[in-house]
Amino acid sequence: MATRSDIPRRFFSEDEQARLRAAIAAAEKRTSGEIRLHLERNVPKRGAAQGDPYLRAREVFAKLGMHRTAERNGVLVYLATRARRFAVLGDEQLHQRVGEAFWNDIRDLMAGHFREDRFVEGMEGGIALVGEKLRDHFPHRDDDVNELPDDISY
Questions:
Q1: Coil vs helix vs strand at 81
Q2: What angle do helix axes 119-137 and 14-28 make, rounded to 10 degrees?
Q3: Rounded CA gap, 77 and 60, in Å?
Q4: Which one of 46, 75, 76, 89 has the largest count of C-beta atoms within 10 Å of its C-beta?
């Protein structure tokens, strides 16, 4: 029997999860930046998040240690599967270089797919766009190390 904590894991099929991991790996291949995907059932209404996906993404970003990358160029894509709410959060060095308009573009691209229940396509598109921008500002180097796992966290 599935538990509540299994629900985000079942939101995407195994094949879809593999597609998302491949999208992350492909995006990171051309950059020193790091991308993570985090799924949970709902945005917690208690604590610092107070039901806000952006605030929750900030908590998860810190919990996953994404602020510890050498160049401060990590990006978290956060999705609350039941609530159908999401946020995309970049570390400070990337945010300083791309500005607010970039994050709005990603949000709009993903939301367009999500409205049509095309969550995998929305995630893949958002991840690809993040990867392009990371490549522009943080190109891959010969000595680059994958600092964070490409797995989906729950």
A1: coil
A2: 10
A3: 10
A4: 75
- Residues with Cβ within 8 Å of 108's Cβ and at least 6 positions away in sequence, in order, are none
Q: Which helix (H) or strand (E) holds 87?
A: strand 85-90
Cα–Cα distance, 104 to 113 (Å, whole number): 14
The vertex-40 CA angle with 87 and 19, nearest 5°, equals 80
Domain boundaries, the chain: 4-140
Contact yes or no for 86/106 (Cβ under 8 A) = no
Q: What is the pLDDT of residues 16-57, one digit of tens each?
A: 999 999 999 999 999 999 999 999 999 999 877 889 999 999
Q: Give me the CATH code for the 4-140 domain, please.
A: 3.10.310.50
Q: What's at 1, amino acid-wise?
A: M
